[in-house]
Design a protein that fits this description.
This protein is of the alpha/beta class. The protein has one domain. 34% of the residues lie in helices and 18% in strands. The protein contains twelve helices and 14 strands. A ten-stranded mixed sheet has the order 1-13-12-11-2-4-8-5-6-7, with helices on both faces. Strands 3-14 form a two-stranded antiparallel ribbon. Helix 10 links the parallel strand 11 and strand 12. Helix 2 runs parallel beside helix 4, helix 4 packs across helix 5 and helix 8 packs parallel to helix 10. The radius of gyration is 19 Å and the shape is globular. It starts with 6 loop residues before the first strand and ends with a strand.
Length: 306
């Protein structure tokens, strides 16, 4: 979709994002969270930054040591290499240790989204920030899965129930049991909770993206629900094929004007891709959104278990 002004400069007066914020609250705009949304989130004990982007994940997985340049290009390549050498369980243990067994401070952006009671959020990170923040309310969790032998689908479904009989726990459900009146957290790349499931290695991505394109990685109710939606991309970059392919299929059926991407200093390649998908690039980071949002005043950065 050609645009005469593909990159917009947000206004610095008033609240330029006010309409977007209200549409997130109503569910008309879906937050799409990338690795950059975890910027600044530190270990509650040591202050070390949570690994989220490709390079930081590779270094953390390899004891802080860089790998060969062709493997450093992208986390799935590095994960595939170590999976071949040390087994699938090695990669899963690393992700479990990183995201389930380590205490991280709460991200102010994730806390703000939870305070908005966003009805539908897509989070391509593998951490548990949103799950922790949504544990005060019933919600549906969709977790991406790869190479499942017993099912044609590439997701696991859970309903988080609160109350004296459920003790705030996830219960596995089937597609017909999805309660569309509950908030939905979609974690396509996986999460350790309630049961570890990850899209991590090259083989995972090949399988997942193939089934995503074939319609087997998104529940049918979500396919109907997402029609005509707009998206707000936060902390995302589109410099690699995997990010572009996953995003394009997850937003299938979006409105002609598919939304906005907050990308400071976006590359020409990113701008062209977003324009093709009907996404307006805004030259700003998610911090700009948070600084202009009235609800941001209530967020804090106290340590929470991840």
């Amino acid at each position: 979709m050609a645009q005469s002004n593909p990159v917009a400069q947000p206004s610095t007066t008033g609240s330029p994002f006010a309409e977007i914020i209200e549409s997130i609250r109503s569910g008309d705009i879906v937050p799409y969270l990338g690795p950059g949304t975890l910027a600044g989130v530190g270990n509650a004990l040591t202050g070390a930054q949570i690994p989220a982007d490709s390079e930081s994940l590779i270094l953390a997985m390899n004891n802080g040591q860089p790998m060969a340049p062709r493997l450093m290009y992208e986390f799935p390549r590095a994960a595939m290499n170590l999976e071949n050498k040390r087994g699938r369980s090695f990669v899963e243990r690393f992700l479990n240790t990183t995201y389930a067994d380590t205490k991280w401070k709460t991200s102010p952006l994730h806390q703000w989204i939870a305070q908005l009671h966003a009805p539908y959020v897509i989070d391509i990170n593998r951490d548990t920030q949103l799950q922790t923040l949504y544990r005060d309310r019933a919600h549906t969790l969709i977790v991406g899965a790869a190479r499942l032998g017993a099912s044609q689908f590439r997701f696991n479904l859970y309903e988080f129930r609160v109350g004296p009989d459920d003790s705030g726990a996830y219960h596995e459900i089937e597609q017909p049991q999805i309660n569309m009146s509950l908030p939905i957290l979609f974690k396509p790349m996986g999460t350790p909770l309630p049961k570890p499931s990850y899209i991590a290695s090259d083989a995972d991505y090949v399988d997942y993206i193939t089934e995503l394109m074939g319609g087997f990685a998104v529940p049918s109710q979500i396919k109907d629900y997402r029609k005509g939606k707009k998206y707000l991309l936060l902390g995302m970059h589109f410099t690699r094929d995997t990010e572009r392919m996953v995003f394009a299929d997850l937003i299938y059926g979006a409105d002609t004007m598919a939304g906005w991407a907050l990308i400071p200093d976006a590359t020409d390649k990113e701008i062209r891709f977003c324009a093709k998908k009907g996404v307006q690039v805004l030259d700003a980071g998610w911090q700009k959104l948070l600084s202009t949002a009235p609800a941001s005043a209530a967020v804090n950065t106290q340590a929470e278990p991840a």
